[in-house]
Amino acid sequence: MVSSNIAKNAARLRWAVWIVWGCILLAYAAGRFGVSFGPVQVRSHAAATDSWSLMIVGDLTIALLSIALWQLSRMLGAIAAGDLFSARVVGSFRMFALWLLIVSLVWIGASIAVPVVSGHALPHHYEFQLQLRDFLTVGITLILFLVARLLERARQIDEEMREIV
Amino acid sequence: MPIIVRLDVMLALRKVRSKELAADIGITEANLSLLKSGKVKGIRFSTLEAICERLDCKPGDILDYEPGSSDSGR
């Protein structure tokens, strides 16, 4: 009963992930190509500053985030199919955490590297912005790795329980 | 593993079939077969109680300990 509820919730959450993923891609594409809806014009921050390097970082981030969300949807799909602690669930969750960590590290790295690459840095003066939010994301993804290890332990316990009649 | 499962002996003594016992105690035939061959990591007290009740025996009639026996059948 409990596992069937979890499976139902996972299936609903999977739909939510797909919808959010689609919205992110649409919003990004609209901002990237400067789509206008009557008086409303959607422009991304990177496009607004006309910095090609920021645009590349944005494209890369969206691509990496898409991979992370795909792994998340794979994990939720496996849970919805009834696998609570299977190797597939644990593996997908670990990959989701890994890709999310890469996204946040790319974003931090880009914040440091973009001013130099785009030529905005003045001689003898190097300035970049780091936001607390980026470090929080790294921290949260590191916690996800701990959760992945806990899931792995749960999988081993589940396997052992199956061998007890 | 030095714990030996003697369920097959008790089944023969009581003239009860595996299928019958599995149905009576509420476990699958596959699990009962694994238990008979000793290819399990453990047995729940509830399962043991149900077997003892059905076969009218004690846990010691089903489980035995043979020191030095490392053949677990795995």
Walkthrough of the structure:
The complex is a heterodimer of chains A (165) and B (74). With 165 residues, chain A is mostly helical. Chain A is built from five helices and two strands. Chain A has one domain. A two-stranded antiparallel ribbon of chain A has the order 1-2. The longest helix of chain A has 31 residues. Chain B is mostly helical and 74 residues long. In chain B, helix 2 packs across helix 3.
Helix content of chain A: over 70%
Question: How many individual β-strands of chain B?
Answer: 2
Order of helices and strands of chain B: EHHHHHE
Structural class of chain A: mainly alpha
How widely separated are the two ends of chain B? 10 Å
Assess the beta-strand content of chain A as a share of residues: under 5%
Which stretches of chain A are low in confidence, meaning pLDDT under 50 for 5 or more residues running? none
Strand segment tally of chain A:
2
Summed up, what is this model?
The complex is a heterodimer of chains A (165) and B (74). With 165 residues, chain A is mainly alpha-helical.
